[in-house]
Amino acid sequence: KAGVTQTPRYLIKTRGQQVTLSCSPISGHRSVSWYQQTPGQGLQFLFEYFSETQRNKGNFPGRFSGRQFSNSRSEMNVSTLELGDSALYLCASSLWSSGRAYEQFFGPGTRLTVL
Amino acid sequence: KNQVEQSPQSLIILEGKNCTLQCNYTVSPFSNLRWYKQDTGRGPVSLTIMTFSENTKSNGRYTATLDADTKQSSLHITASQLSDSASYICVVSANSGNTPLVFGKGTRLSVIA
Q: In A, which residues are within 8 Å of B106 by CB distance?
């Protein structure tokens, strides 16, 4: 079974630009979550999607947005990039239920550098 | 404020030795607690998930304990191997399901020969 894939793996942008990252979940997984990881803050939850609907959202500004397609693939977008947005962006997929916790499977991440 | 604190920040042990990593949390309401292993440059890999009613859970040489009364968890690694060198992250969920999740900063473990 193929794992979670993320593209691109590395990205360099300049301040003010926008970026779109892509995530393909494990086949059969309909929940996709996004996380930001930085050396100073560690892992932080961005948002979770299930059935094309955002189910939960972390404490990030509106410049961070996402969406999920009918095939469960997900994208996240960051507009008006700032230097502080430089981070490893991780996507995780899992089965989903409002009443139980399932194991999350993480992708390798996209390393975003903002210059 | 929901927080997860891990200790120590870093740890160096000899191959074959045991070690224990600590996690204290103030997340409320509590739903579940997870331990992840993250190798450098890779995404985290789930080791265990424990709910309120579970005290101990094992995954091979990894054993996690949970004391929901004191809001503490530990991850014990037995007979360490060089491949155990990684960051170990404790994560607590405040609601049922996967999110929202509160992450610890991790313990960086180095196993040396």
A: 42
Q: Please report the sign of the dihedral spanned by the C-alpha atoms of residue B7, residue B8, residue B13, residue B15.
A: positive
Q: Å from A17 to nearest chain B CA?
A: 25
Distance of residue B103 Cα from the nearest chain A Cα, in angstroms: 6
Unique residue bearing structure tokens 């899992």: A94
Q: Hey, CA dihedral for A13, A31, A107, B113, is it positive or negative?
A: positive
Assess B65–A contact: CB distance below 8 Å, yes or no: no
Query: Rounded mean pLDDT of chain B?
Result: 92
Q: Could you read off the pLDDT of B72-99 as tens digits, one per residue?
A: 999 999 999 999 999 999 999 876 555 5
Is the distance from CB of A1 to CB of A105 less than 8 angstroms? no
Q: Report pLDDT for A84.
A: 95
Q: What separation in angstroms does the CA of B42 have from each of A14, A83, B105?
A: 25, 23, 16
| Higher local confidence (pLDDT), A63 or A98 | A63
Closest CA in chain B for residue A93: B98
**CB-CB under 8 Å, B104 with A97:** no
pLDDT of residue B94: 78
